[in-house]
Design brief:
six-stranded antiparallel β-barrel, single chain, Lyase, Ornithine Decarboxylase, Chain A, domain 1, 22 strands, TIM Barrel, 390 residues, elongated
Length: 390
């Protein structure tokens, strides 16, 4: 999906990943993150957001909840992270990263609510009066007032399977008033997902119907006497979408793929953000004229199409990749070519590293021509080593 763009716009990352694999510093099923490029992308997105008075919570699930990258983004100027679930919140908090938005897309389990409230996240997203009640009790116990954000759903919205939940517009006023009556809570925000998706015909990221729902929800709450100060519009947050967030009345965004330069827009057109991630594998064996490389990093919405195979930059050749059946485990990925056992395989596709069993190699200095392995982590952000596997 992004291989051609990577070869053209960040060949140093491709060459570094190739060299590290050939030297045995990294092994197959490793994502290599270009820390310089991620920080560059993060800085560009934040500068655009500052210009439009948009606040950002950075997202780490796509890059494996990596604490080193998270701390680097804090150094760039970000103030807090968004956690897609309670496990990510635990990982970020344990790494010293302030929590911006928790509870969206995954609600906080009942037994974890009190501990999460004590961490003082800027806002907790809720889908129900019952969950708000748990947070209220925890906030009373902790002697603090917790800000809440309500996820809202309107007819015609885009909803992904496995992500259903929130307040229907028809019930919003009554349920919001019930929540507002609970002690030590303050409803400050609204959110939905996804708020922007790639429009192939227009060749741009366009607002979904969910954005209209957010506008209607804000009016409904205003009529119920609840003033909303935060309208969070996540999905595909990048330099290109910041003006649209502002134009549609949004106040917050959550860059994830934008930090890696891997939104669908980045696959179709050149954007300010550079590609900052590559997947490394190795030929394991051949069968019936095709070659098989080690898997482990496949994400079923990755749109992987091509791979580069070879042991030197000049020898890299592009070949077709066959995505594995979703009913099967990705022990191997099949390539429509004949390659030698042990040859390096490089791919660039849409990632969700946290749902894989891959390693993550964070590399500094690539853009300065002095690449250095900063650490190898697992897909949940835990350090495996700093010296590679030599």
């Amino acid at each position: 999906m992004f291989l051609a763009t990577l070869r053209r716009r960040n060949p140093a990352l491709l060459e570094t990943a190739l060299a590290f694999h050939r030297r045995g510093i990294i092994r197959p099923d490793t994502y290599v993150l270009d820390l310089d490029a991620i920080c560059h992308n993060g800085r560009l997105i934040k500068q655009q957001a500052d210009a439009f008075d948009i606040e950002l919570y950075f997202m780490t699930k796509q890059l494996g909840r990596n604490p080193l990258v998270a701390r680097a983004l804090m150094d760039v100027g970000y103030q807090a992270a968004v956690a897609v679930d309670y496990k990510e919140a635990d990982r970020l908090w344990g790494s010293g990263i302030p929590l911006g938005n928790v509870g969206h897309l995954v609600q906080i389990p009942s037994a974890q609510v009190a501990a999460m409230v004590r961490r003082r996240p800027r806002v907790i997203t809720v889908y129900s009066v019952e969950k708000a009640g748990e947070i209220s009790a925890a906030a009373v116990q902790a002697d603090l007032v917790q800000n809440l954000m309500l996820r809202v759903i309107g007819e015609g919205d885009v909803l992904y399977p496995g992500q259903y939940g929130g307040f229907a517009l028809a019930e919003l006023a009554a349920k919001a008033q019930a929540i507002a009556a609970l002690p030590n809570l303050r409803i400050t925000g609204l959110t939905s997902f996804p708020c922007f998706l790639f429009d192939e015909e227009a060749g741009r990221l366009a607002a979904t119907h969910n954005v209209r729902t957010l506008g209607l929800a804000k009016k409904i709450l205003a009529g119920a006497g609840i003033a909303v100060t935060e309208v969070n519009m996540p999905s595909a947050t990048c330099v290109a979408t910041i003006p649209d967030i502002a134009r549609h009345g949004g106040t917050h965004g959550e860059p994830g793929h934008g930090l890696l330069g891997t939104t669908p827009l980045h696959a179709a057109t050149d954007q300010p953000e550079a590609p900052a991630v590559v997947y490394v594998s190795e030929i394991s064996h051949q069968l019936e004229g095709r070659s098989y490389c080690y898997g482990g990093g496949y994400y079923r919405r990755s749109h992987m199409v091509f791979a580069a195979v070879g042991n030197t930059p000049d020898a890299l050749r592009q070949v077709d990749v066959e995505s594995p059946d979703t009913e099967s485990i990705d022990y191997y990925l099949r390539l429509n070519c004949r390659a030698d056992v042990g040859e390096t395989v490089l791919m660039a596709f849409r990632t969700q590293i946290f749902v894989t069993r891959s390693d993550v190699a964070v590399v500094e200095g690539i853009q300065a021509g002095t690449p250095r392995l900063a650490g190898i982590y697992d897909s949940q952000g835990y350090l495996l080593g700093r010296e590679g596997y030599r």
